[in-house]
Design goal:
- The protein has about 160 residues and is α+β, with helices and mostly antiparallel strands.
- The protein has one domain.
- It contains three helices and ten strands, in the order αβββαββββββαβ.
- The longest helix has 17 residues.
- The protein is globular, with a radius of gyration of 15 Å.
- About 35% of the residues are buried.
């Protein structure tokens, strides 16, 4: 087996979410996997939270169900969702939040802090969410099957 193939097999999966469009209702960004564009992500409104803020400050700033998670780097696991009854990605150790998943949806109403996938974007919405989500899930599930660690870094 070549060195390049060995590195590919054991390399962690790195997702980068670059937030790019900010409105009073939502935030839309581009998601890449190991440097390659994957899909658009829609989140709730960005209120400038970062993972280095004290929990008290995050809680004081956060508006439940209407605030994007803090900027930072998070590990992703692949677990059964009690709500959706399917295996889904979940972000671990998001300060001030719990149950943050990556799933399908079209507007911030579908989010509650979660990250929504789409192949196209418009004002305060994404479309073709099921196709984008299924494609991303297949890649995450395969990475987990191979024993890779998966991380997402959220930037501006």
């Amino acid at each position: 087996m070549t060195e390049r193939r060995i590195n590919y097999l054991f390399k962690d999966m790195e997702l980068i979410l670059k937030r790019e469009t900010f409105t009073n209702e939502s935030t839309i960004g581009s998601l890449t996997i190991n440097g390659k564009f994957e899909c658009f992500i829609l989140e709730d409104k960005d209120r400038g939270l970062t993972d280095s803020m004290p929990l008290a400050e995050i809680v004081a700033t956060k508006v439940y169900g209407k605030t994007a998670i803090p900027y930072g780097r998070y590990q992703i696991d692949w677990t059964m969702s009690a709500r959706f009854k399917v295996m889904m990605p979940i972000l671990l150790n998001v300060n001030g939040y719990s149950g943050i998943r990556i799933h399908k949806g079209n507007t911030e109403i579908d989010s509650l802090g979660c990250l929504l996938c789409g192949t196209k974007k418009a004002s305060n919405r994404i479309t073709e969410s099921t196709a984008a989500t299924n494609k991303l899930y297949a890649k995450i599930a395969e990475a987990k099957k191979q024993g890779k660690k998966i991380y997402i870094t959220i930037t501006k």
